[in-house]
Amino acid sequence: MKIEKIKGFRDHYPEDMEIREYFFKKITDTAENFGYKRIDFPSLEPLDLYRLKSGTELVNQTFSFVDKGGREVTMIPEATPSTVRLLTARKDLPRPIRWYSFPKVWRYEEPQEGRFREHYQFNADMFGIDSEETDAEIVGLASSILDYLGLSGVYEININDRFLMEYILDDLGIGNIPEAFSIIDKYKKLDRASFSSLLNGIGAGEDVVKKILSLLSEKTDTGGLEKKVKKIVKNYDEIKPRIDRIKKTFELIGLYTESTINFDFSIVRGLSYYTGIVFEAFDVKGELRAILGGGRYNGLSKLFTDEEIPAVGFAIGDAVIELLLKRQDLWVKRNLKESYYICNLSGSDDEYIIKIASRIRSLNKIALVDMTHRKISSQIKSASGCNYAIIIGDREVEENTVTVKNMETSEQSTVGYDDFLLHLRNRTS
RNA sequence: GCCGGGGUGGGGUAAUGGACAUCCUUGGGGACUGUGGAUCCCCGGACCCGGGUUCGAUUCCCGGUCCCGGCCCCA
């Protein structure tokens, strides 16, 4: 019986995994170099964790079921609630707290380009301080990761501020702000007419719609932001401190990356829990969905505790990153460790061969012992993925020598065992 | 959940209402008893599943499933 893979899930064979792990490690290395510590949590959480946070809509898009104990549980659709649960369970942690995680997350949706029902999602969050500096570090970490992956110049980061946005919408007399966000979120997908009529639908008059359109019309720098807001709000001085904070944040982000950073009023993000900066990274060609996204969510800790703990973070899914790296021709195998394929000619000495392999491994290099006992040409063919072939036959065993063939240059030499060890150590240092 | 396009050996493909289903590649073996990572030869391996039409279906029809892409939604 043939069992097919479950829809929207992926298999990964070694040739994929090698590349995948290379890039995953780049991501986690960057986070660790910023002082972020890894955490982990269950893949299964109570469904209520997501009900509380985002209402019933989301529940339809999760892998949820009732377990044998009658509990409603969910395959985690995102990491943030779990992360905050861990955070609030510990009162002793010195702040700020810098954490990252790299779980699999699940969502029950139709698969399409850059989206699967199961994917890896890297998350980084900082808790305890609400400031320009912390906002900028999180955006800076996000861009540093992309830069370190080799994507400099390939992406840009678009930033908005929910606090500012809410102030403006309120100032414009919009009553239903969550609904307004939901409409603004669709700005890029709708034509002007249907966008306007949706806004009319929540009580926005023509002049208000015009003002909103002027905000959304194009991405801008902080100077442009200031001008746009001045033109629209009734009392600019009231919101000026927030604008100043955003300007300062942009300045600081510029210290982390050369990449383009825009202010973009159309970046809203679906989640209702954001309270400050929100941002997304896109490929500059605009061909793919968002590469990463995040923002400040100071209120979320209230789900678990009375204390409001400042929080800012972001998440990167592996799917879009992989697409982008492939389009940049960066998705290629790299030999990180030197590898040796030990050709074991029949009649040779297992003890000698395993001794050599162990010495190679003790220097954190790869040693692979041929166990097929095929003719030498086949064994050498098997060695072609490695940096070196080592040929051990009766001759080498008797004379206590090692024949080393460089698989890239085809150069070959037979050296004494001790000289070989010297060669290994030299290449290590 | 909805819409469109697909599904032939492990990967990539060709053809076909009827006989042994094509080619490339990968894998195994040999020519070839220590270098021949080449070349040549041999071998293994497939019509997504179920139902229908038909004397006969891999081929035509219907349903399902999975893949690719789009919508919805987006953590």
Helical residue percent? 40-55%
Total of DSSP H or I helical runs spanning 4+ residues: 16
Task: Give the CA-CA distance, first to last residue.
Answer: 53 Å
Task: Give the helix/strand class.
Answer: alpha+beta
Report the major sheet: 9 strands, mixed
| C-alpha geometry | elongated
Low-confidence stretches: none
Quick structural summary:
The chain is an alpha+beta fold. It has 16 helices and 17 strands.
Protein described:
- There is one protein chain.
- With 429 residues, the protein is α+β, with helices and mostly antiparallel strands.
- It contains 16 helices and 17 strands.
- It has helices spanning 14-33, 48-54, 56-59, 80-88, 132-148, 162-171, 177-185, 192-201, 206-216, 222-232, 236-253, 318-327, 350-362, 376-382, 394-399, 417-428; strands at 37-38, 44-46, 64-66, 72-75, 97-101, 104-106, 118-127, 155-161, 260-263, 277-283, 292-296, 311-317, 339-344, 366-369, 388-392, 401-406, 412-416.
- Strands 1, 5, 6, 7, 8, 9, 10, 11 and 12 form a nine-stranded mixed beta sheet that branches.
- The mean pLDDT is 91.
- The protein binds one RNA strand of 75 nucleotides through helix 14.
Write the layout of secondary structure elements.
Layout: H1 14-33, E1 37-38, E2 44-46, H2 48-54, H3 56-59, E3 64-66, E4 72-75, H4 80-88, E5 97-101, E6 104-106, E7 118-127, H5 132-148, E8 155-161, H6 162-171, H7 177-185, H8 192-201, H9 206-216, H10 222-232, H11 236-253, E9 260-263, E10 277-283, E11 292-296, E12 311-317, H12 318-327, E13 339-344, H13 350-362, E14 366-369, H14 376-382, E15 388-392, H15 394-399, E16 401-406, E17 412-416, H16 417-428
Helix pairs in contact: 1-5, 5-11, 10-11
This protein binds one RNA strand of 75 nucleotides through α14.
